[in-house]
């Protein structure tokens, strides 16, 4: 027997807002991404602007058949993507859905099944309809729970025979760090109180649990998971103060998983709220709704960080969404993301020991500047040995975690084809096995070319990880 189970779900991941383009076609409304031309930390614009690469993406909306065929050639068992909420409900608060939006995902999921690929669908992947952000202040407003419920009922009924695996909110804990992109909250960060931020998180947690409840009613055979941005915090030194600081930093992320898996707020968070004057407003039904716990825990993993009690040492890593003190023992990518393969084994063990629920790695990859060259046969490709080494080193640690006894459902590397970066809105920050000929100035043919890593990953899947 090999290390990975025979039914292991190998594949890749993208998000609708980073690949589809066609931002104003077939009745689609605007999302928060359409006014973020420079990524997470950039200023948002009043209307979509031509310098926003996500408006066109990689034209997946029109080229999905070609791309799914490439994924099938690699041997994908699963393809993770998201449904753009504003394709289904252009403003977000309508009572009736946009049929053309629903039809697109019918075609997409049918195309996956043509090749035996299971769709893994994220319901909300940083794609809150812009109207809900501007008119309701996003998830800061409890009304979004009802709008989300309407949305999930529609897509569950529509795709119940086509989608078996679902995720509720992408990197749900990121709302604490990117409130507009993650939660559609328009209040300026400097004016946003922790009270408002954690109340918005509560609304998302209730909505997520409600989606699990509805999903199990509508699709008895479906599996529905949460999705967490994992970034383990190591103590910078062995000093007990640093160890406790690392524990406290990790609690802020564990909080979201704990509620999803255990169905109630953990004691350490209740203490934090009490000591910081935060009172979460629970409606009478919230406690019961939260008891609808997930079937599995999925997460992204790109990097780790350190934690220090001494505020003078709290220099934050420039590339890390969650901040954190840079680890002096690790190298970093071109964008400042620290590379820590062993951290993935650590995270897998931490989550498994804590939750005893099946785990799913749904994002992991290396963003890098790739150079398109010609091989000995005159074909265009990318000699991305650096990406192969990154992925191999991480997957070797995944194997170790499986040997440790971790129950792992699958692995979908991010983004299996070049997409527009969420953090920087750049196309030059490439992750894929497939190179897309498009540049940050909008030029390029949009032609697809197989990188060296394409063939490497194809072999990894074919041999179920035995060739690592």
Automatic annotation (TrEMBL):
InterPro entries referenced in this protein's UniProt entry, alphabetically: GH, GH_1_N_CS, Glyco_hydro_1, Glyco_hydro_1_AS
Cellular component terms per the entry's GO annotation: cytosol
Alphabetized UniProt keyword annotations: Glycosidase, Hydrolase
Annotated catalytic residues: 363
Protein's GO biological process: carbohydrate catabolic process
GO molecular function, one term: beta-glucosidase activity
Pfam families: Glyco_hydro_1
NCBIfam families assigned: PRK09589.1, PRK09593.1, PRK09852.1
Similarity comment: family membership: Belongs to the glycosyl hydrolase 1 family.
The protein's name in its UniProt record: 6-phospho-beta-glucosidase
Organism expressing this protein natively: Faecalicatena orotica
Lineage: Bacteria, Bacillati, Bacillota, Clostridia, Lachnospirales
């Amino acid at each position: 027997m090999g290390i990975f189970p025979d039914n292991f779900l190998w594949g890749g991941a993208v998000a609708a807002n980073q690949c589809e383009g066609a931002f104003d076609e077939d009745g689609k409304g605007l999302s928060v991404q359409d006014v973020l031309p420079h990524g997470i930390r950039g200023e948002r614009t009043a209307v979509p602007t031509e310098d926003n690469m996500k408006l066109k993406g990689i034209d997946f909306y029109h080229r999905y058949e070609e791309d799914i065929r490439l994924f099938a050639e690699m041997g994908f068992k699963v393809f993770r993507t998201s449904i753009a909420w504003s394709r289904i409900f252009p403003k977000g608060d309508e009572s009736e859905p946009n049929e053309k939006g629903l039809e697109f995902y019918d075609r997409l999921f049918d195309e996956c099944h043509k090749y035996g690929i299971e769709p893994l669908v994220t319901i909300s992947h940083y794609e809150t309809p812009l109207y809900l952000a501007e008119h309701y202040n996003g998830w800061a407003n409890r009304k979004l729970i009802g709008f989300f419920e309407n949305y999930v009922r529609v897509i569950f009924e529509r795709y119940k025979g086509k989608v078996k695996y679902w995720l509720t909110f992408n990197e749900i804990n990121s709302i604490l760090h990117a409130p507009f992109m993650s939660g559609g909250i328009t209040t300026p960060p400097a004016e946003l109180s922790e009270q408002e931020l954690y109340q918005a998180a509560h609304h998302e947690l209730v909505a997520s649990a409600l989606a699990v409840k509805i999903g199990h009613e509508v699709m008895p055979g479906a599996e529905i998971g949460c999705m967490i941005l994992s970034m383990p915090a190591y103590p910078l030194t062995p000093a007990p103060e640093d160890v406790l600081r690392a524990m406290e930093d990790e609690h802020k992320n564990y909080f979201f998983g704990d509620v999803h898996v255990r169905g109630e707020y953990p004691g350490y968070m209740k203490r934090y709220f009490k000591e910081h004057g935060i009172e979460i407003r629970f409606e009478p039904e919230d406690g019961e709704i939260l008891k609808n716990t997930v079937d599995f825990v999925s997460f992204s993993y790109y990097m780790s960080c350190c934690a220090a009690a001494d505020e003078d040492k709290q220099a934050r890593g420039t590339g890390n969404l969650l901040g954190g003190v840079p680890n002096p023992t690790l190298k970093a990518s071109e964008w400042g993301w620290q590379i820590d393969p062993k951290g993935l084994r650590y995270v897998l063990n931490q989550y498994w020991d804590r939750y005893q629920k099946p785990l799913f790695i749904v994002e992991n990859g290396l963003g890098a500047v790739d150079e398109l060259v010609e091989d000995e046969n005159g074909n265009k490709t990318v000699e991305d040995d650096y990406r192969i080494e990154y992925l191999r080193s991480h997957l070797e640690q995944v194997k170790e975690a499986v040997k440790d006894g971790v129950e792992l459902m699958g692995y979908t590397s991010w983004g299996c084809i070049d997409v527009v970066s969420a953090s920087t809105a750049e196309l030059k920050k490439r992750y894929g096995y497939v190179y897309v000929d498009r540049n940050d100035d909008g030029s390029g043919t949009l032609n697809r070319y197989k990188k060296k890593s394409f063939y490497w990953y194809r072999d990894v899947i074919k041999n179920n990880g035995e060739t690592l």
